[in-house]
Specification:
Layout: E1 13-17, H1 21-27, H2 32-38, H3 40-53, E2 57-64, H4 72-95, E3 99-103, H5 111-124, E4 131-138, H6 140-156, H7 167-172, E5 184-187, E6 206-208, H8 219-230, H9 240-244
Parallel strand pairs: 1-2, 1-5, 2-4, 3-4, 5-6
Helix pairs in contact: 1-2, 2-4, 4-5
C-alpha cells in the first residue's frame, strides 16, 4: 500500500484524535487503563510511518482539558503512563530524527510529567525530520480564549490596534504558531466529531474517521488515510473548474 502513495502530494501536517482505548480494553475484558497501555504501539507505528514518508508535522491529541474530569484513578494512571512512555521512547525519537514539542496548558500537568517532557524536548531539539506535537491538557476553545485574552491585552497596552487583527495575526497568538494547519485529521474508532480539537486549525482539513480502535491502528491504516486524502479534491471554496485552470 505504501508504494501507491504519491510523495509529491503528502500532507505536511497530520493531526490525530486517538480514540477507542477504553472500548478496546472493554472488548478484552480489562480496565480502561489496559487500553491506554496498549495504545503505545500505535503511537510508535504512526510516528515512524510519518517520519519514513517525510510528513513534517504529526499532532496527537493525547489529553484534553475535559479529560481531567475522568475518574482520578484513570487520570493518575494516564499521567504515570505518560512519564514512562516519554522516557522509554526517546531512543525511538532519536533513531527516527523526530523532534518533540507540545501544545496545551502543560503547566497543569504533574511536575514529573513536565520534567520528562522538558527533558525529551531538550534531547530531541536538534532533530530535523518529523516534528511530533503532543496536545496535552489542550482544548480548542481554551486555545482561542487564551489567544483572545493576549490580543486584548496587547490592544490595551498599545502594542497593536484593533484594525491590525486579522486571520494571520490571530494565528500567531495560537499555541500552534509556526506550525501549518493540518491538511488531514484522523479520528479512530468511527466517532464522527472533532471533540474540541484544533477548532481554528481544522477549518479546511480533510477528515478521515475509520472504525479501527486506536490500539489496533498500524502503519497500513496510516497509509490508507493518506491514500484517501490524495484522492480528494481540495477546493477551498473554489469550483473544480477553477482548480483545473
Amino acid at each position: 500500500m505504501k508504494e501507491h502513495i504519491d510523495p509529491s502530494n503528502l500532507p505536511q501536517h497530520i493531526a490525530v484524535i486517538m480514540d477507542g482505548n477504553g472500548r478496546w480494553a472493554k472488548r478484552q475484558g480489562a480496565a480502561r487503563v489496559f487500553g491506554h497501555r496498549n495504545a503505545i504501539k500505535a503511537v510508535r507505528e504512526v510516528t515512524e510511518g510519518c517520519a519514513e514518508l517525510g510528513v513534517k508535522f504529526l499532532t496527537l491529541y493525547a489529553f484534553s482539558t475535559e479529560n481531567w474530569n475522568r475518574p482520578k484513578f484513570e487520570v493518575d494512571a494516564l499521567m504515570t503512563l505518560l512519564v514512562h512512555t516519554i522516557r522509554g521512547e526517546i531512543k525511538t525519537l532519536m533513531d527516527n530524527n523526530v523532534r518533540l514539542t507540545t501544545i496545551g496548558h502543560t503547566e497543569s500537568l504533574p511536575t514529573d510529567c513536565q520534567h520528562e517532557l522538558a527533558e525529551a524536548m531538550r534531547e530531541t531539539s536538534g532533530n530535523t525530520g518529523l516534528t511530533l506535537v503532543l496536545a496535552l491538557s489542550y482544548s480548542g476553545r481554551w486555545e482561542i480564549l487564551e489567544a483572545t485574552r493576549q490580543i486584548a491585552a496587547d490592544v490595551r497596552d498599545g502594542r497593536i490596534t484593533p484594525n491590525e487583527v486579522n486571520e494571520t495575526l490571530f494565528s500567531h497568538y495560537l499555541t500552534t504558531d509556526g506550525i501549518p494547519d493540518p491538511e488531514l485529521m484522523i479520528r479512530t474508532s468511527g466517532e464522527m466529531r472533532i471533540s474540541n480539537f484544533m477548532l481554528w486549525q481544522l477549518a479546511y482539513s480533510e477528515l478521515y474517521m475509520p472504525d479501527v480502535l486506536w490500539p489496533d491502528f498500524r502503519k497500513n491504516h496510516l497509509y490508507e488515510a493518506i491514500l484517501n486524502y490524495q484522492q480528494r479534491e481540495r477546493r477551498f471554496g473554489k469550483t473544480s473548474e477553477q482548480l483545473v485552470k
